[in-house]
Amino acid sequence: MKNEKYTLGLDISTSIIGISIFKDYEFLELDHINLTKIKCIFDKAEVVYNKFLELKEKYKISEIYIEDILQSFQRGLSSAKTLTQLAKFNGIVSNIANQQLGVKPVFLNVNTARKILGIKINKNSDKSTKEQIIEWVDKDLNGYEWPTKIISRGKNKGCVKFENYCYDISDAYVICKAGIKNNELSR
User: Fold this and answer.
1) Is the Cα torsion angle 85, 88, 94, 95 positive or negative in sign?
2) Rounded distance, CA 61 to CA 22, Å?
3) How far apart are CA 16 and CA 169, in angstroms?
4) Nearest to 84 by CA among 33, 14, 37, 9
């Protein structure tokens, strides 16, 4: 049991942090940290700190992979202020992970991670990139029970949809699995 290897994958945002854990390079668990109702960045950091304490008690993490932040603006996406806040929080969470779990995180570009795993995003699809990623992860996991909700109002009233955090945990899964695969390839 002492030689078990736990790998942590994180998709960090200021609202939800996706978490993926592999044990001995096999999928173990998906989780998330919901920060949507917390405004202060330091209060968010405290919640993350406490979650990492729980992870430390439960697992001996030996590798951490984190989705790297965007290096440039993309049309129709985040503003400079949002990107700066995200970069700041990514640094805080990365440092907490390093301090709490005793492992220096490795940062992976999302496009590199997808390439490592052979994930192809169809830009002409009616499905968003996030929907295509969750479909890939669902197929890869073969039977994972995704948390869902029933829409209570609007044009989609009565429809069953994934919980919003499912997209974050699927991104964390991709980062974690790609990090493991990339590490194996570089040996």
Assistant:
1) negative
2) 9
3) 9
4) 14
First CA to last CA across the chain, in angstroms? Answer: 24
Distance CA 146, CA 142 (A): 11
* Mean pLDDT of the region 74-84: 64
Stated pTM of the model: 0.91
Total length of the chain? 187
How does pLDDT run across 82-119, given as a tens digit for each residue?
A: 778 888 999 999 999 999 999 999 999 999 999 999 99
- Residue 75: both structure tokens together: 């049309």
Residue pair 8/63 in contact (Cβ under 8 Å)? The answer is yes
Question: Tokens representing 160?
Answer: 């069953």
Q: Cα 117 to the chain's mean position, in Å?
A: 15
Place of tokens 């984190």: 66
> Which domains are delineated in the chain?
6-117+164-185 (3.30.420.10)
Longest distance between any two alpha carbons in the chain, whole Å: 53
- Single out the residue of 181, 187, 32 nearest to residue 119, CA to CA: 181
65: number of Cβ within 10 Å: 27
Instruction: Report helix, strand and coil shares of the chain as percent, to nearest 5.
Output: 45, 20, 35
